[in-house]
Amino acid sequence: MRLIYSTIFIRLLVIMLPCIVLFLIACANKQTNATKAFKNSNLVSNSNNKSLKTSTIDNEKEYKELHLIQEQFSRQLLLKQNEYTKLCDRNEADSCVKLALSHQLNYSATQYEIYNIYNKANKIYDEECRNGNMSACSGLGALYESGDGVEQDIYKSKALYKKACDGKDARGCLNIGLEIRGCISCESNMENIKRALPYFEKACKYGSNSACHMKTQSQRDLENLINSNL
C-alpha cells in the first residue's frame, strides 16, 4: 500500500502548478529558520538579557514572515481554485482534479464535496477516453489507482495506462514506469529499473520533462547497481 501511495503522490505532483510548490518550499524554509532561531534563543544564558531580547525579536520576525508567506500561499491557492472551478464547470477534467487537490491542500471543502469533484472528473475522463483521448485515459487510470471519486481498481488502472501509452500519451507511459519502478526513495531493484526504463524513455520522447528526469535517474541508478556488483 505504501508503494501505491508513493507513486500516486509523485503523479499528483506532476500536474500541480510550480507556484504552489515554490510557496510550500518557501514556507518550509521559513519554518526551519524560525525553529532554529527559537532553539538558538534557548541557548542564551539568563545573564545575557540583551542577547536574549535580540534573539526573541528575531524569532518573532521569523514567525511573522512565515505567517505572511502562508497567507500569500492561501491567497494564490484561492485564485487558482477560482480558475479551476470555472474550467471544471466547462467539463475540463484535469482542472477538476486540480480543484479537488487544491481543496485538500487548503482544507477548504468537505470530504464529500471533494469526492464529488473527483467523481465528476472521472465521468468526463471516461467519456473522453472512450472517444479516443489518450490523455483522458491516463487521468482516468490515476483516479482508479488512487480510488478518488471511484472504487479503487489497480488492474483497471494498469490497463488504462497501457492504452494511453500505446496511444503515445506521455503521462500514461510515465505512470506505467513509475508503477514498475516502485518507491523512488527505496532501495533500488535492478530488474524493476530495467523494466521501467523503456517507459520513461517513451514518455520523455513524447514530451514529459518529469519522465526525462526519471530516465536519467534510472540510468544512473542502474549504472551504480551494476558497478556495485562488480
UniProtKB/TrEMBL annotation:
Primary location:
secreted
One GO term in the molecular function aspect is: beta-lactamase activity
Subcellular location per UniProt equals:
Secreted
**Which keywords fit this entry according to its UniProt record?**
Antibiotic resistance, Disulfide bond, Hydrolase, Repeat, Secreted, TPR repeat
Q: What class of enzyme is it?
A: hydrolase
Keyword Coiled coil found: no
Q: Where is the signal peptide?
A: none
Q: Name one GO biological process term.
A: response to antibiotic
Q: Which domain of life is it from?
A: Bacteria
Q: Gene Ontology terms, cellular component aspect?
A: extracellular region
Q: What is its EC number?
A: 3.5.2.6
Q: Which reaction does it catalyse?
A: a beta-lactam + H2O = a substituted beta-amino acid
Q: According to its UniProt entry, what is the function of this protein? A: Hydrolyzes 6-aminopenicillinic acid and 7-aminocephalosporanic acid (ACA) derivatives.
Task: Family membership, please give it.
Answer: Belongs to the hcp beta-lactamase family.
What is the name listed in the Swiss-Prot or TrEMBL entry for this protein?
A: Beta-lactamase
Q: What is the lineage of its organism?
A: Bacteria, Pseudomonadati, Campylobacterota, Epsilonproteobacteria, Campylobacterales
